[in-house]
Each structure stands twice: as structure tokens, then as C-alpha cells.
Prior knowledge:
By secondary structure, the protein is an all-beta fold. Helix content is about 0%, strand content about 55%.
Amino acid sequence: MPIKIAAVSGSCLLFCASAFSVTAWAQSPLIPDDTDTSSLPTNAVRQFRAVRVDQPPVIDGIIDDAVWQQANVITDFHQTRPGNGTPTSERTEVYVVYDDDALYVAARMFDSEPELIAAPVIRHGQGMPSDDRLVVILDPFNTGRAGYRFETNLNAARHDSLYTSVTSFSLDWNTIWDVATSVDGESWIAELEIPFKSIPFDPAIETWGFNFGRAIRRRGEEMAWVSQNRTYNPSVSGQMTGISGISKGVGLDLVPSLSVNRRREYDPVTKETSTEPSLDAFYRITPSLNAALTINTDFSATEVDNRQVNLTRFNLFFPEKRDFFLNDSDLFQFGNIGGMASGNDATSLGSRENARPFFSRRLGLSENGAPVDINYGGRISGRVGRWNIGTLAIRQDEFGAVDASDLFVTRISANVLEDSGIGFIYTNGDPASNVDNSVMGVDFKYLNNRLASGRTVEADAWFQQSETPGLDGDDASFGFGLRMPNATGLRGRMAYKEVQRNFNPAMGYINRADVRDLTADVGYTHFFGGTVWQTAFAGIDAQRIERLEGGLQSQALVYRLLELQTNTRDGISLSHTRNDENVLRPFTIYSDQNRQVAIQPGQYQFSESEISLNTGGQRRLSGRLNYLQGDFYNGERTNISGSVTWNQSRFFVLSANYDWNDISLPQGDFVARLTSVSTQVAFSSTLYWISLLQYDNLSEELGINTRVQWIPRAGQEGFIVLNYNMQDRDKDNTFESAFSDLTVKFRYTFRF
């Protein structure tokens, strides 16, 4: 009997010259679905025809419905890792059918050792970096520019992502779809149902971009149906033909929710109980253009942020986690600002995201992270022909001395050339003050993945200007970037960003202003092709930030000396970093009731070396250990950090993280510690209990977030969420209750 688990639901100039010296085109022929593709190049445009059926299959994780016999069987998968286009170690069979309402995908993934199938993720909405997984990528508009990614594992956990560009995607986006899985003695099976109501599409387009991926983690093996340069994404995919007569229904989703909240402060003692109904409504104006309305928006069930220790003088960056703002968030991306230096170890997340004109986390949250009521809001987003549209209007309630405000953002872009785009953005309003503010910007994105030898070149350019009373002149920001990503051999990129001193995106994100920021990196990846070692990488990452009036602000040069990974996903890396910091004003990095430790003005040069070890996350017991030793401003720092995860079963996972900084400075010594422990308990595929405990000795605050989450069907959710904080205000190892917040919430999606 199969076991079933069901879930319903600068050498800059040299680099630039070499990048554009590749001018030969590598045109890919179209391969019809009746062609033997076993010997074709991996980047050939593969094609299959989806079969329309009258009766949908039963999504139960068993491929025994008669409709699957009508489908074309796709078996021509190949390795992307460790091999490149080589045959896979195990056979995979994929079937695709559809009816008026949904697309159905079934996959049988043969495995000679089914008892070793890795499935550490046990709840919905999590990434699957260490799971044996099935990946389905859809590009309903067949533009090769954006798309949707659906992943599942043996536990029938659902994870969906929205490609914000062809090389990056939002992990927090989610939509409604269903999956069920089973395992027998020779394979594991997944059946997916993706409703057409859950994704935008153009009914006039009968050919969709389509791709499949699969991972066998214990062998470090990745495989795909179509790939290029060991990569697959919406720009590197095949085609699914024959899609016609599909329906979005009425196109209306109503999502009412009700939450009961009891909030208590302990010093001084205050208690407050509230019952809040809210309503989200989503309407498909056309199959590819959506309208959304939110009334009395409730974010009480949003997951808490992971704590960070800040040892710099610049703001940290915390990502958006609220569903309302994550839906269609790709349409509001501007200039690829956050992605221009992504993966460059010399940069911080805050510096990479610096100068974003729109950052939805500024809405509905105060400067200290406290929720601010959103009375109502509306959004129109989607695609009309070559145009991509995102418009958002929010009425935010008053808080503190800040009056109620109307906030507006519109983002419009057009597809040009083969895979490129040009766009415009405008924001109006300041959610954190009573001062008027607006930002206007234009951007251009170039993509060419048709170069010789399967290489890709990407480029971005953008300009934006803010208008704020009292800040006249020097209120612009602009930048450009050039990248040649490559999973094998030589890769490189560079980017330049200038942020003038009065540039003020009140609805965006600023990490530092009055600077010019230059980043560059170059590296080389070698694949061994053996049975033990898979890859070796070495490279150099660099960032230099100068003040516009002259002089260095920060510089980092990271020598990534060696990064080795085995076919079982174990790894070791060695690096050395050289830092230059020019501090003009003192800033405090540690304080308690008795003293403060501050970095004084001056020019500092310091270096540090790091070694990292990690084991593959598919193991029952896995972990990571980092050791860093070196100078720190005018003193020294030792950093030890690590994590350990116990995948006890598909029903219980325990993780612990620890980060310890021992800093010794002439002006004072201190230790910064950050600890977290999390547990995940799956009572079934629809009922979870998740807990997170976090502590850091700088705030001396112990935070507990625990939630019971019930998902009887995709689109139906119930929560019981407790946030409880304790604090050692006197830092005498005596913790007292500081805050508690208990929320019971249920929301239900009605689809028409």
C-alpha cells in the first residue's frame, strides 16, 4: 500500500569590454512535441502539448486516474548538477492535463532508495533548499521575463514564489493551489492542481512558458527539462502549447477575516482587548489585470522578524512579510536596485537595497516597527499587452503626532526588444510624517540570454528624483549595473549607484545618502565531475562607498579564497576581508545602564579572516559553523556563529542558532550574543504548531512567538498566535514580563 500524505490546497573596464565582446547569437530551434529530444542540446526550445480533459483527476497522490493516460509523458530530463546536460541518475515522468478551471500536473519520481528521500520541510510556505523536491515554473504570458514557481516535497508541503526578475524571485509570495503526494517502493509521486483563478493569464495566448525541475539532495543532483548554463528560470524554459478555452470564473475572491486580540503592557500596566473584522477583495478585471481592495487591514498573524545585531552605523533591512503587499510585488520592482549587487559578500543587505523608491514595509508600520492601522486601500496590478501595471493607494490611520495620510504609488513598465523593459515609477505621500513627499523615476532593464556558448548578459540603468518641502536641490539618485552571470567558469558584475544628500523616498528605503557606491565582483566556478567533490569556487568581491563631497566612507574587499562543496552538499569555505572605514561622527555600538561604547571619529583599516563549515541540510542532523577572527576598528573581534537542525521526522524539526561576538576596544570591551531556538510540529498536513524563541544581550530582551496554524484547505486558515516578551531592564539576569499579545484569527477565501 502506498503511503499517502494529502494537503489540499576596477577591473570594471576589462570586465565590461569582455562582456560585450561576445556578439555571436546562439539561436535555439523550436522542437515540436513529436520529436525525440533525448540527444538535443539542453537549451533547445522544447515543446509539448497539454491535453484538455473533460473530467479532472482526483488529487490524491496516486496516478491512477484514466485522464493521465491521455497526457503526453515528459521524460527527457537532464542534470544541471553535478553534470551539465548529462543523463539523470533516476527516471522522472511528468504528465500535464487541464480543463476549464485548472492545470493539473503529475510527476512520478523514481528513486532506488526511497527510504533516503529528504523532506525536512513539514509546513507550507517555506523554501525547500534541502528537500528532494519537484519544481514547476509557469510563464502564462510566454514572455520569458517573469513567472510563477511551485515547489513541493514528499510531505506535500506547498511553496510558491513569484519571479521578480528572471534571476530572482520573492519567496514570501503565495497563492491558492493544491497538492497531494505518496511514496511506494520505487518512487515518490506528486499531483498538483493549479487553478487558473490563482494566476493571471491572457486567454488569447495558447502557448505558455513551462519548465520542470527536480532535486535529489543526498547526491547533490539537480535536474531540469530545459536549462542553460546549469540554470533554469522563466527566460530559460520550454513551451506548453494547446491552452485554450480556460476560465477565470467571475474572477472575484472575497477574503473576510475576524481576529480577537488581547494586548497587555506590564510597565505601566495596560490591557486592551479588541475584535477586528477585516475584508480583502480581489477581482480580475481581465484574466491578466487584477483589482484588490482591503478594508480595516489586519496583519496580526504576520510572522515576526528574525532579530539582527547591528555593529555598524547604518540602518538594517528587514524584508516584507505581509501577504497583501507581497501579491503582485514584482510589478512594483524598480531598477533592480536590490539585485544589482546580490551575492556580493562585500555588501550588506541594507546597502544593496539603498535608494529603493518604494518599500511596502514603510506602510502600516511606525518607525519602531509598531503596527499602524490601515483603514482601507486599493490596488490595480497586472499586464495589458506589453504593459505591466502596478498601482496602490492606501489610507493610513493617524498615530502619535502623525496625521492620517493618503499614500499612493504607481509603477508602469513596457516590454521592449526581446527580453528587456523600460519603466516609470511615482510615489506620493509620507507615512511617517506630516510633510509632503513625492518621488519620480525611470528605469531600463536589458537582458540577452542568446549569446554564444549559452552565456547571458544583463544590464540595468535608472534615475529618480524626490520632492520634499525644505529639501531643495541635490535630491536625485541614479545608477547602473552590468552582469554576466555564469554557473560554470568565469562570472562577473559591476554596479554604480549615486544617492544625493537630499534624496528622500518617504515611501522607500534609505540606508545612507550623499554617497556614490561602486560594487564589483569576479569569480570562477569549477565542476569536478567526480563522485565526491562537486564544485570549487574562488573570487573577489568589492565595494567602495565615497561621499559626494569627496573622501572615503566605507570600503570592503573580500577575497573568497576557496569554497568547496561535495556531492552530498557538505562544504567548507575560506575568506579574508579588508575593511576601510572613515568615521566622521561618533556612533554607539553598545550601551547598558552603566556605560556606552562608541566608535570615535577617525580613519580605520582592519582585516579579518573566516572559515565556514556546513553539512547538507538533507541529513537528519545538519549544521553550520563559522569562525571569524581579526581586527575591528581600533580593536579586535572574534565571532563564532552556527546552527544545528534536527529533522527528527516529517512531523518534528528542531533548530537552534547562535551568534557570539567578543569585541575588545580601547574604549571598552563587550560581548554581543544572539540566540534563537525554533520548533516545528506537524500534527497532520493541515495542522501545525510553530514556535520561535529569540534573545539578544544588547536589548536584554527574550521574545517568544508561538502559533498554532490550521489550514484545512488552501485559502482557509486559522491561527492562534502568542507574542510574549520578557526583558532584563537592569541587566542583572532578572527577567520581567514586558509585553504580551494573544490573537485568535480565522480567514476564509470565497472564490467566484
